[in-house]
Amino acid sequence: MDRPAISFPSLLYKKSVLIFFAVAFLFAAWVTVVVGPPVSEKPAGVVVDDDEANSTEEESLGLEYERYMREVVKLLESDEEFRKKLESANSSDIKSGAIAQHLNFVSKSIRSKLDELKRNELERLRTVLRLKVRQAHPDSGDRLPPPALHELEKLFGHLDSSNQHSFETKDLVKLIKRTTDDLEDIDRRRREDFKRYEMEKEHLRREEMKGLPTEEREKKEKEHEEMEKKHREHPKVHHPGNEEQLKDVWEEGDGLERDEFNPRTFFYLHDTNSDGFLDPVELEALFQKELDKVYNENATEDDMMERYEEMNRMREHVMKEIDANRDSVISLEEFVNSTQREEFKKDEEWDTLEDERQFTDEELAAFEKDLNERQHASDVTPPTTTLSMQQQQHDDQQQQHVDQQQHVDQQQQQHVDQQQQHVDQQQQHVDQQQHDDQQQQHDDQQQQHVDQQQHVDQQQQQQDQRLHFEPQQQPQHDQPKGVI
Ligand SMILES: *[C@@H]1O[C@H](CO)[C@@H](O)[C@H](O)[C@H]1NC(C)=O
Ligand SMILES: *[C@@H]1O[C@H](CO)[C@@H](O)[C@H](O)[C@H]1NC(C)=O
Ligand SMILES: *[C@@H]1O[C@H](CO)[C@@H](O)[C@H](O)[C@H]1NC(C)=O
Ligand SMILES: *[C@@H]1O[C@H](CO)[C@@H](O)[C@H](O)[C@H]1NC(C)=O
Questions:
Q1: End of a domain among 305, 330, 355?
Q2: Residue 334 Cα, ligand 1 centroid: separation in angstroms?
């Protein structure tokens, strides 16, 4: 399988923690490569964002503070001394943030750029915060209620907001920890999203059935059963990582003699970026033949979202079995060790997704109830089902942010009474109140792209410029925007 080019700072790649970067990083490119273009019969729609359509290089990890994180990493990398430290650090040093102490040896010019970066980030966060509060309370007029405490922590958790001026060790520790935590959470979020996807699919199917006359419904039910049956008919799937499975790859993929299988050679052949580890991407490439047995992009009975989930399940399974030190990559020693175990020789059939229920009746009922409530809560929104289905199918990250937004909104409502604790932030809202009207017109966009800092930054810039050059904001005298 072709590997999309990786351009994220290569030194970060070596270390396990940051392998998670790779996984998320490649996600978007992957959906196209592995999952293939959507098949028309599937309940799918491609959500292609104009801004992201051809930016393979800057594929989003889905972190709210991602641009800031990348800029910090880029600056630190440009410091020779720091880069050396980072290269020689072990994963626990990175994970714990201990690496941050080396910040003290970073050159002055880079330090001052970091300071500036942080000040800009704080500025951006204030804008985002104000937007969120505004969204949660569209009718609040001039007096915006204060944001919830968790919301502040969530938004400002990747830096030390008690120091508004300079970038210090504490900022780097927080940034590293936050990024690591968030990225390690990716698999859990993926599983949750998948479950929701499956429930939504079932929900839609049931809804469709409800509206049909008995005869038609029986016919459809029968068709559905046949499709499921057809999907279940496939050649035996090997346990990922066992001898037969690897030998298939060796023979069919690598074109080598089955009897001459050699674990070391195999390892080197499939460590395609030659960094001495099999990382999640390299591992998942090994499962494609097994996946092909079950999921064909052209078959209406096969769902490519399920293929993607199956691939992830396989990776998680192999990691659990082989990755002895739990650093999320497989070393040569770990790999060779695994081939000497008894289980390696066993060739039990792998239970694919369809062999287990993805959700219980109770979970589906709760899901439908929630969906119903949300639909009633707003007549304006298009049918939630179709909308979120599309998002889940092709835009995990977007879904995740929509969810966060909903969560945020709930939290906001519950914490109107925390005024005193947030006097500072409140002050900032009030100061910037005069610009909220412009902000409002971007709200729709914003709702779907809270994480797209470019947008926010642009708005921020416009605002700043207006703030500085057009202090008297009077709509009737306004020149067309951007004439500054
Ligand atoms: C995307 O690709 C098109 C051509 O394929 C190019 O004209 C456009 O500038 C690219 N956009 C970005 C943001 O790189
Ligand atoms: C990582 O390196 C530090 C010293 O830089 C050392 O104290 C620590 O034990 C090492 N941890 C591991 C897991 O190797
Ligand atoms: C699906 O159909 C396309 C076009 O007919 C073909 O190129 C492709 O190889 C098919 N894929 C599989 C897995 O059969
Ligand atoms: C590989 O197996 C040997 C012998 O059982 C063991 O000593 C060694 O720690 C193992 N290595 C890894 C990385 O698990």
A1: 355
A2: 43
